[in-house]
Amino acid sequence: MKIKDIFETMEYGPAPESADVAIDYLKSHKNKFQLFINGEWKAPSSKENFDSINPSTREKLAEISEANEKDVNLAVKAAKDALPEWVNIGAHQRARYLYAIARQIQKHSRLFAVLESMDNGKPIRETRDIDIPLVARHFYHHAGWAQLRDTELKEYKEIGVIGQIIPWNFPLLMLAWKIAPALAMGNTLVLKPAEFTSLTALLFADICKQIGLPNGVVNIITGHGKTGATLVDHKDVNKIAFTGSTEVGKIIRRATAGTGKKLSLELGGKSPFIVFEDADLDSVVEGVVDAIWFNQGQVCCAGSRLLVEESIAEKLYKKIRKRMESLRVGNSLDKSIDIGAIVAPVQLKTIEELVQQGVDEGSKLWQPSWACPQDGYFYPPTMFTDVSPSSTIAQVEIFGPVLVAMSFRTHKEAVKLANNTRYGLASSIWTENINLALDIAPQIKAGVAWINCTNVFDAAAGFGGYRESGFGREGGKEGLYEYMKPRIHEKFSDKPVVKKPKDLKAPSTNGQHVTGIDRTTKMYIGGKQVRPDGGYSTVIKSANGEYIGEVSTGNRKDIRNAVEAAHANSTWGSMTGHARAQVLYYIAENLAIRKEEFANRIVQMTNCSKTEALKEVDESIERIYTYAALADKYDGLVHHTVKQNVTLAMPESLGVMAIVCPNESPLLGFISTVIPAMTMGNNVIAIPSESAPLSATDFYQILETSDVPAGTVNIVTGKKDELAQVLAKHDDVDAIWYFGDKAGLKDIEYLSADNMKRTWGNNGKYRDWMDKEQGEGEEFLRHASQIKNIWIPYGA
Ligand code: NDP
């Protein structure tokens, strides 16, 4: 092409970035990498290697070691041995190491960027301007948190050895999101990068060596899924942090059930990109480019579903098609391309198959007129219109440069369509009307809402999902809790903490039903006292075996009714914190009026002294006051993100929560678990103490007289574990707390994997509910809510 022609067409010429420094780096390892264990490079015990390929050129870059079980054991042992010293050096020294890592990343930023682009296929413009600067920012930000650890977070301590498994789409960035907070909070770790993209993690290992990070604090082992699974199963790993597919996330949830390992999962998404008719359409078009063609669409939070108000749909599609025609696909080291290569042939095949399925299911395909280069794994930007909301391409995470577009007529329909997937990672809302945007953002079930922007990230803001997009947050203060545990947990008991019964007399009635006493309590569902579906009841006896009465034996159908009733109630969740507080105070007031009666009931069930029973009622009243007080005070933050943004971190309710109450402290155990869940605006299905349920069934009279909307609290009595398992399997339950034994919790964690419910329990330990430090506080509210980060850019 002549210069004259270039002036005519204004085509970009190639602007290749040199690969020399990266090639030299690979040569320094003889293009063959070992495992990084205990501060040393170590040959894999398997003696096996696999190739790392440049997806833009199909050329082999290096050989990577396959770590087997023996290597995983060595790495975990190194991390475990390094832990005491790493904890002992203290917050300030850890901060210095993190700061040194950040400096080194900045110093070698171009090498990191080039290597990442070659290994992954992503454009150098993205690695240079987005990935690597964000990595450095993450380590700087967390160097700060490391420094503040002993002052700002002194009620918490490190978890121990962390196993971290990351995907191939943002190799170094995901490493930073995992490693920075883990180290800052005083943990040591073993990290496994994805098989396709291990190189920058290995360069990072060299950085750890350079700065003199104590041996064993960071261990990097490469390998396939099996290596990851071995790490997950290792008994000395105290927490698993995983980013990847929802399918593998579920496998890990099940594998860790009952082990007491803490877990955070950042999984797939099918995020909505919602455009209202008053949006600035030219900005929207650039937003779409960033949403779905950034990183070839291989982004968990990609705005892959374009939802457009019908009145402007055709106009917007036309503009997008025009822009697609001008996008450039090519070698990742060319600075003038927009879209690089797909990471590997297997991913390319998945994309091609799903696109074909879209065509087969009747959606309209559009791709630009030009063809992709043939020397790498390339795929053109693609848009589907005429897409039905239930079609495969509208539901499945394609993880490629494929946009599916649908239209809506009303705001309500937009929200419904946006929430119409099993995922809930991110959303992007485009309108010039800030009132509309802030009305829509809380209605979308997703951990992030970007208003008039998309795919913006920062170390100061949390990122993570709702629903099957996983749980836990990375970044922000909210992300730190994933790497710490409350010190108070060390006080938990190995056995249930129960009041000592007063001298137990033999039951006067031989434990048999006494004629004349006929008290069978009903259940409480949807604000009504209801009989059990099965028509059975269970006898309740006191601690000395005396017959007290009977409770309804709930079954699967009763649970289904309770879940339905909880869903039908939208009143409680939409009330303000102040309004909820008023109801909670009212509950406390009504309980205070009936203090004697509730104390007598506790005496009757547990045979404790009246004084102790009165203390339990008093403590219950006080606890309700605490949560009423917190209802309008446990609020969010405005994060200091680096761009011109107001980033609101808002705690939102989880939705419908199942609470399996402790058997001990019949009233206080019920109050201590149900009230914090209510405080955050959840609707609750409570399974009260199995042995002493009557305080809870008496309590519905209090709920009835305290202005609690129907369906806010539903009480189903019966066999605790049977009912808990039905709840754990129920797809419309968003979270489940289980306060019982270890075996019960294991079942709950295992069964909850199907829809990725949040689970919480005491891992086979027991709280003393009478102790305020153990029985109440922000830990409860944190587990009853999830943080949504809403990004609102500013600047005229
Ligand atoms: P995976 O979820 O399989 O991989 C993520 C990480 O987990 C990798 O390091 C992988 O190792 C490892 N892994 C795989 N199986 C196990 C296991 N049983 N136990 C522990 N670790 C395991 O994602 P893929 O890379 O296979 O991609 C498949 C699909 O997942 C994509 O098409 C995309 O839809 C989705 N995905 C979503 C991501 C997200 O961020 N939401 C990120 C990546 C993929 P290895 O790579 O060596 O097999």
From TrEMBL:
InterPro entries attached to this UniProt entry: Ald_DH/histidinol_DH, Ald_DH_C, Ald_DH_CS_GLU, Ald_DH_N, Aldehyde_DH, Aldehyde_DH_dom
Domain named Aldehyde dehydrogenase: residues: 41-486, 537-759
Positions annotated as active site in the UniProt record: E266
Claim: Oxidoreductase is one of the keywords in the record: yes
Xref: Gene3D superfamilies: Aldehyde Dehydrogenase, Chain A, domain 1 (3.40.605.10), Aldehyde Dehydrogenase, Chain A, domain 2 (3.40.309.10)
Keyword Kinase in record: no
Annotated family: Belongs to the aldehyde dehydrogenase family.
Protein name: Aldehyde dehydrogenase family protein
Keywords tagged on the record: Oxidoreductase
